[in-house]
Design brief:
The chain is 75% helix and 0% strand. By secondary structure, the protein is mainly α. The longest helix has 34 residues.
């Protein structure tokens, strides 16, 4: 019976989540019920629960996690400062003369917003409200339009500064140190959020290129699905137009350079760079004449809500992790993964498959806080590079926003899409982009240098 408790705990949490209960309460509450049952039957040591206050205190005093509310503040402020609206309008006019130009514009704006905000929901909703009606009015295929918007919004998962990379970096750092201690290395190396930011740059840019390549392919083989803007409706590309392009692109590019550049050149830590981004977002809002007390109040309130949700899930996941470990779940996972056929390749393949399947029903935050602390130490103890593993997990988690039936990008777009765009059309539209993300995952598995070369070059 004792050997089955970790599996039963995991299944019970999944069942409670499917019933619709809040994630944090499902994780913590189910774990505490199992701890009580286990102690009643002599299967669980209460000392694990005694360690909970120290674990929660560690979460609340974690310097790395200070970056979360700062990046959230930056993203929400930019959402309300009309940066996205100006970008979409200008990029649509720039690429409108070519077939698929509107789709390419949405992808590039999604990339810029990802590098400026890192918040998937804000990006998908903003682009859904602004660009989807325009694309439909230009006779774009609804599936292509919806899929492009959803997929472009998820770029905030992989292109830094990304909140998932901040959370993943903190979890992986602890897992990497634990793996080294288990191996008898008592002066362990560390992996930082900055390492993951730098490691994710090349795969993120390649994914943007893949999205644009797909749009060009649709333009060649299905030109009627992505028509160009008629010549009569396009402005002349004179010096006034190019001045407008520069004025619109310069502020977000400046913010991206300030945030990522300060990290790449070692001027600031990711947490310090997050504060630079928050101040930069305030300045951009002021530049757009959108900064007032009402806007600031709304942004602070939204930032508080999102940050509280993340930290509450973190605390619930800490309870789950302690109880899971108390039942010997970490040892069971270690034995299982190390004895798989295929060695480290088989273990990584299975973990990636499980994460991909969990993405159909769970959010990336739950997977990051629950699954990664369990499997991370085992995989890293097998000699895997922590930056490569972190980027692999991030791209895998990115697909969770697109996979039906519970992909959050699908819900975000469904909430703002006009009635003529049906849910099956949205599902069909995202399928090619899910394939592209899985191909990117395969390329990263075959060529680990895509994630590890740039961090090595920067820190060498």
């Amino acid at each position: 019976m004792a050997e089955l408790m970790p599996l039963l705990l995991f299944l019970a949490v999944g069942a409670v989540l499917l019933l619709g209960y809040p994630v944090a309460l499902s994780l913590g509450g189910t774990a505490l019920v199992f701890a009580f049952i286990g102690e009643w039957f002599g299967l669980f040591d209460h000392a694990f629960i005694d360690a909970l206050p120290n674990r929660i205190y560690g979460v609340m005093t974690n310097q790395t996690l200070i970056a979360v509310p700062l990046f959230v503040f930056m993203g929400v402020m930019l959402e309300r400062s009309r940066v996205a609206e100006n970008l979409l309008d200008t990029m649509a006019l720039l690429f409108g003369p070519m077939r698929g130009g509107l789709g390419i514009s949405v992808t590039l704006v999604g990339m810029l917003l990802a590098a400026s905000t890192g918040i998937v929901g804000a990006t998908v909703v903003t682009m859904g409200l602004l660009s989807l009606p325009t694309m439909l009015r230009r006779n774009y295929d609804p599936s292509v339009a919806a899929g492009t918007i959803c997929a472009s919004g998820t770029l905030g998962q992989i292109i830094p500064p990304s909140i998932v990379l901040v959370l993943l970096g903190d979890v992986l750092s602890a897992a990497y140190q634990q793996a080294q201690l288990d191996m008898g290395i008592f002066s362990p190396d560390t992996v930082s959020v900055g390492d993951l930011f730098i490691g994710a740059l090349i795969p993120g840019m390649l994914l943007v290129g893949a999205y644009i390549g797909y749009m060009l392919g649709v333009a060649i083989f299905r030109p009627a699905a992505v028509p160009a803007i008629p010549a009569a409706e396009r402005p002349e590309h004179d010096w006034r137009f190019w001045l407008r392009v520069v004025k619109v692109l310069l502020p977000p590019f400046g913010l991206i350079v300030a945030v990522l550049g300060s990290i790449l050149y070692g001027i600031a830590t990711p947490t310090e760079a997050a504060s630079v981004g928050a101040v930069g977002a305030l300045l951009l809002a002021a530049f757009q004449r959108q900064l007032n007390l009402r806007t600031l109040t709304a942004v602070v309130r939204q930032t508080t809500v999102v940050t509280s949700m993340v930290f509450l899930i973190f605390i619930g996941a800490a309870v789950f992790s302690l109880v899971f470990r108390g039942f010997g779940g970490d040892e069971a996972v270690t034995d299982f993964l190390t004895n798989l056929p295929g060695g480290v390749v088989g273990a990584v393949a299975l973990v990636m498959l499980v994460m991909f399947l969990l993405g159909f029903i769970l959010d990336f935050i739950e997977i990051t806080f629950v699954v990664v602390p369990i499997v991370g130490p085992v995989l890293l103890a097998m000699g895997l590079d922590p930056v490569w593993l972190g980027v692999m997990i991030a791209i895998n988690l990115q697909t969770s926003f697109l996979t039906p039936p519970f992909g959050f990008s699908l819900f975000y777009l469904r909430g703002v899409a006009p009635p003529e765009v049906t849910t099956p059309q949205i599902y069909r539209g995202v399928l090619p982009f899910i394939v592209l993300q899985l191909l990117m995952l395969a390329a990263l598995a075959l060529f680990p240098g895509l994630a590890t070369w740039l961090p090595d070059a920067v820190y060498s």
